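Internal tracking record. Fields below are filled automatically when a chain is submitted to the structure queue. Please do not edit lines marked as system-generated. If the sequence contains nonstandard residues, flag them in the REMARKS field before resubmitting.
Queue: standard
Priority: normal
Entity type: single polypeptide chain
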Amino acid sequence: MTAPDSSANLSRVPCTVVTGFLGAGKTTLVRHLLENAGGKRIAIIVNEFGDIGIDGEILKGCGIDTCPEENIVELANGCICCTVADDFVPALDQILALTPRVDHILIETSGLALPKPLVQAFQWPSVKSRVTVDGVIAVVDGPALAEGRVANDMDALQAQRAEDETLDHDDPVEEVFEDQIACADLIILSKSDLMDAAGTARANAIINEHSARAVKIVPTSHGKVDPSVLLGLGLAVEDDIENRKSHHDGAFDHEHDDFDTFIVDIASIANPDELAKRVATVAEEENVLRVKGFVEVGGKPMRLLLQAVGPRVNHYYDRAWTATDDRRSRLVVIGLKGLNRPAIERILAG
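SYSTEM-GENERATED OUTPUT FOLLOWS
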């Protein structure tokens, strides 16, 4: 590999790609970076697999002066690795036109995105002359890996593989995970506070098994990583990306037909814990990987943010409702193909 031209990199805005499976903790990590950026002017491109932007809303609510709301660009209802020309490049143009000039760009991909096609777009002359990929950070779910899983319900996934001949016995969740690991310069082992030493060792072993390169693994809880560890790597990854082999090398495109996503509207609730139990039930009874959304709680002026990875459900009031907010309670559901939508809607509605 030829060493990057450091003088050329100085004139280009560095971009850090944050990838990782559904619910691994990418948004938590990005928010911590924003809150501890040391005065750097940060811009963010947030991509979600779903019709409404939950992660973008979370970040916009940070109230951080160095990353105002206009510095956050959301790309909803599409996978950034599939829509580089249509979505990513215009978003990049919008950010690079900001005054004052941003110091660093964070790109948070959807949980189903492949980082390699995105990084390859940085090779385009119109892109490469202005920005460079500082590094690719993969966030992985520590407790899930400690249990030998990259998805919540591996039994259901194995059953689908056995029954669906169109999958040709490929595991789509495993492939996404492996492709994200293959492109990473640094791996964040999230939720380390929920693991003991033996669990951490198992998770590390799985990562090393799937990684073809020696990549540093950083354990963290609540996304707390010193920004100096993640930003300013100066790796110019676009110059090395062809050496990072993935399942989709040689393919002109890839599909997300192995996954379903839809929105469930529910009525205002009285008890967040009861809703959390219903969400956990959905994860246990259906092939649901991820649930996230904003919910109105009767008599409360604050907006409830709910996020779930499998049966692990987290909820808290993130901010007050404003006069311009759409106060409907809406949950984004993401799971393996063939979700029983009527059953899920019935359970979530209570």
